[in-house]
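Lay summary

Proteins are chains of building blocks that fold into shapes. Our project writes down both the chain and a compact code for its shape. Here are two examples, one after the other.
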Amino acid sequence: MSNISCCVYYTDDNTEAASSGDITEHTPRPYICSVCGKQYTFHRHLTSHMRIHSDKYKCMECGKCCNSDYNLKKHKRSHSGEKLFECNVCRKRFSQSRNLAVHIRLHSGEKPYKCHVCDKAFRQSTHRSIHMRVHTGEKPYKCHVCDKVFSSSTDLNTHMRVHTGEKPFECTLCSKRFSQHGSLVVHSRIHSGEKPYKCDVCDKLFSTSGNFHSHMKVHTGAKPYKCDSCGKTFSLSAHLKSHMRMHTGEKPYSCHICKKAFTRHDSLQIHIRVHTGEKPYKCPSCDKTFGQSSHLRQHKLAVHSKIRRYHCLYCGVWFTTNMCLIRHVATHTGAKVWSCKHCSDSFQNHNKLKRHLLESHNEGTWFTCHVCEKKYLYECKLKLHLLRHEDVKPYICIECPKHFHTAYLLKLHHQKVHADKKFTCGLCNRLFSTMSYVKAHFRKCSMLLKFDFE
């Protein structure tokens, strides 16, 4: 008997009593089922419930038992897919009238179930019952693996996926899977570009409510969370907790593939894409994809934007991004702005720092060619290198029959061979297509002619 699955639908009398506030979390339930121990406030409800243990109204497909023939017929619709009840607003269909009634409240905004402690209102009585546990502190659902407790069975079921590894929700675009439906909804906005949360102050858009609420504190200036070590303040407690790891050195998030550890979970998620090759951020102009949204923004500025906001004070050249300007200025000053956190070494650019970390401190991941074992700092460089082994030249010149391994080589070819030559060497009158070419040539030309500028 203990293995019987119950399918009980309460009568309208019970629904009316609940909606009027007569039944609460603390209402006495003196009528107890002798078979399964379930408790009821009214004797008629216990009588109705007892019918499920008689196997009289049993579903032959899944074994569930109902308390009446009417409820069994309603249950069978879950197998047949029959949906008799349609919403007259959005045309969504339901197999049961009570599900339609609850759905209608989404459109009407009706929330008939009110918390008597904080006056918060809910569309369903079950949601109010779960909410009441916020005030009582009751958490009746316990995980049998780690003993963590929860206020609702839904939260417990979701938590169990942490132990089982189950990810039932799959993205139809990139096949990435998630343990929670809400996580899939948020992820899908990466592909759709949807940002439903708008700041009324500056009109900035956000894909999640959490990011929106965090942003709003930018305008209020509220930073109630203070670091005891350095005095820095934060708008969110989570940001303070993450910051504290800079002082403690704690890195609780570890990559299961290469064991590299991180202070933040989102940093680990970004790192995982190095191994999986996932690049969910796509450029709308050239279809190039990126593993991080920040890299996509940099790409748009550096490649597709014609706006150059950053000005070199040494030579007057303008740049699309601040990072490009910093790298350029280092060629004038010789400044080594990239410092190693493990030793006293510093470098002029990030690539040299990354190579140093890999070679001297074994920090990071090499991308190794499986053919010749040549190592690269970046996966994109390895992919370009592999094209040479495969002798693939996908970039074709429209002016001549030449093919090239990379778009960059095609661009160089076009500049050297086909572009208009507007720049002239002042020593030999040779023409060039770009300023950089004529400058490089001028240095060589002056050395060959032993030209003295002094």
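And here is the second example, written the same way.
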Amino acid sequence: MHGFPNNAPVAQLDRVLGYELRGREFESLRARQIKKDCFISSPFLFVVSGVMMRTLVRLNCREQFRLVVEDSISTRRTLAEFMQDLNYKVFTAKDGVEAVEIMRHHVPNIVLTDLEMPRMNGLELTSYVRSHDETKDVPVIMLTSRTTEKHKQEARSIGVNEYLTKPFVEDILLEKVQYLSSKQ
């Protein structure tokens, strides 16, 4: 068996082992995929169907969550439920000011934001995200009713990764979220 150094990124090992079993919860032997932002603390061995396998204990994992920023309560709930259905923890904010307060305590893996909101709009929020070291690499998906090329160009120039128009198609949003998650 190969030895794995402590704190080696799991993403480099997914060809060897892309799954873990939680602690001693072997009763169902259901594997759960290891997230890329977790690090190996120590390997241990277990046996499944007579085959010796190596798995990893996760330590110091940054919890994956999405931040939904939307002033419309119905759209905010719909987006939050959509992300929760994908097994992500979700924080919600009604505008950019609330989002900034959340990001002071929890750095999201992806921000989904509306363009037009009171107090701080989506462009101002994206500008905030890009100007701070701890959030500058966080992908931003903008969901808006604005369809003009002018708005799209302005959003991209500020640092929006993906620009989708409302009403959004869930399959397209899912594709964008998965794509941006894979790049992290």
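What can we say about the second shape? The longest strand covers residues 39-48.
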